Amino acid sequence: MKFAHLTIAALLASTAATAAQAQEVPPPAQQPAQDQDTPLSVDVTNTAAKDLVIAIPAMPTSQSVDTPAGPTDQLGAKLAQVVEDDLRGTGLFKTTGPSANRAVAYSEVTAPNYSSWNGNQAIIQGYVRANGNGSLTVGCYLYDVLLQSELVRQGFVVSPADWRRAAHKCADAVYSKLTGEGPYFDSQVVYVAETGPKNKRRKQLAIMDQDGANHRFLTNGQSIVLTPRMSPKQNAIVYMSYTNRKPAIYVYDMAARSNRLLVSNVSLSFAPRFSPDGRTVLFSMAQGGNTDVYRVATAGGDPQRLTSSPGIDTGGSYSPDGSKIVFESDRSGTQQIYVMNADGSNQHRISFGGGRYATPVWSPRGDLIAFTRTGGGAFRIGVMNPGGSGEKLLTNSWGDEAPSWSPNGRVLMFFRSAQGSGRPDLWSVDLTGTNARRIPTPLDGSDPSWGPIRP
């Protein structure tokens, strides 16, 4: 797959004709004296700092050309719509998409008519162009309407099949510029797709873009699969399967689309998860009446035991630098969160609230640990600092479980089950806890694992 960023110089060169034409565009009308001398910005952790108004018109083309993804003039509207969907879904911006905005001429992309965008604080303009070699070039520009200044200029060369990735990259560039946070729209999620009666569920691996697009199944559902986790390099998925009714850990090779047995002949193994360098896998298994955390080389070999206290130790997750592991244990009499060094030393408890804590997972930023907290018969998603302070619950539903971090560590995906339904759906929520939304999937969905930003 070819996916290349254009340098600013290349983008300027590619739009030289439009820049010349832009000289004929009337100069922007005089705007009111700036009452906002500071650049546009949004605080993703402040619930009061919302609703930055952004217009996103359809992206014009220099010449309509038929491509495998459709004519470029129609593709421009689709690109703008994906950008709008991404940004609106954050809950941080008040966006209007291509259907609510006037058409923008190709010559206007690099020379916006600011006066026509009064009422908006920013506009996102772009273009799509078919190249002679079958690829597409997508340009992406963010302008501050009041300051009449360009904030973002990026371009991407993609195959027609990857046009949505160009839109996600554009939205990521705008999001990062306005929030100061890392990108997360151009990423994928692997999860368990479920269907069938409550006592006989069919569970298979599936993968999709973070917004639910480009969905496909990875296994056929003949064996139950659980707890998939994507590798840091996005080239493999580790998961549990009950092939032949025996629990085992498998590694799915993304390129070869084949499975490899990693750990077999174990009883009650749980929640495999890659280390940050992808070289080892954490998992839990029960032996001699005790369940402990182990690690094994991704290539295979003898597992190394990391915990040995009486009780159930499971759910291990590495810190981003690989130096520590967070896990859950009932050694104190109730399910709580513990942290230890990567070699198993210095095990200590960090959660002390009421109820039970499960499925801890370390943020890719290293600043927070997400978890499922159970109390009063309900399951909720929360976060706390790695030392155990600053606990905050982000959801208040009946059955929310198994959080997984976005690549930038600002959003969590999890699954939610309505009381008594036995049918889970995938949801996401940001760190403010005010922007929970359902992620569309063709079947029921559980156990999401959010992969890193795509290269």
In short:
With 455 residues, this protein is mainly β.
Number of DSSP strands?
A: 30
Sheet with most strands: 6 strands, mixed
Helical residue percent? 10-25%
What is the helix tally?
A: 4
Rg computed from alpha carbons, rounded to a whole number of angstroms:
24 Å
Describe this structure in words.
By secondary structure, the protein is mostly beta strands. It contains four helices and 30 strands. It has helices at 8-14, 16-21, 72-89, 163-179, and strands at 3-6, 52-55, 93-96, 122-130, 136-144, 149-158, 187-195, 202-209, 216-217, 225-230, 236-241, 248-253, 258-263, 267-274, 280-287, 290-297, 304-305, 313-318, 324-329, 336-341, 348-349, 356-362, 369-375, 378-384, 392-393, 400-405, 411-417, 424-430, 437-439, 444-453. The strands form seven sheets. A six-stranded mixed beta sheet has the order 1-6-5-4-2-3. A hairpin with a 5-residue loop joins β4 (122-130) and β5 (136-144). α3 packs parallel to α4. It is globular and about 75 Å long. The termini are close together. 45% of the residues are buried. Residues 7-35 have low confidence and may be disordered.
Main attributes?
455 residues; mainly beta; six-stranded mixed sheet; four-stranded antiparallel sheet; 11% helix; globular
Topology, pairings included?
Blueprint lengths: L2 E4 L1 H7 L1 H6 L30 E4 L16 H18 L3 E4 L25 E9 L5 E9 L4 E10 L4 H17 L7 E9 L6 E8 L6 E2 L7 E6 L5 E6 L6 E6 L4 E6 L3 E8 L5 E8 L2 E8 L6 E2 L7 E6 L5 E6 L6 E6 L6 E2 L6 E7 L6 E7 L2 E7 L7 E2 L6 E6 L5 E7 L6 E7 L6 E3 L4 E10 L2
Parallel strand pairs: 2-3, 2-4
Antiparallel strand pairs: 1-6, 4-5, 5-6, 7-8, 7-30, 8-9, 10-11, 11-12, 12-13, 14-15, 15-16, 16-17, 18-19, 19-20, 20-21, 22-23, 23-24, 24-25, 26-27, 27-28, 28-29
Helix pairs in contact: 3-4
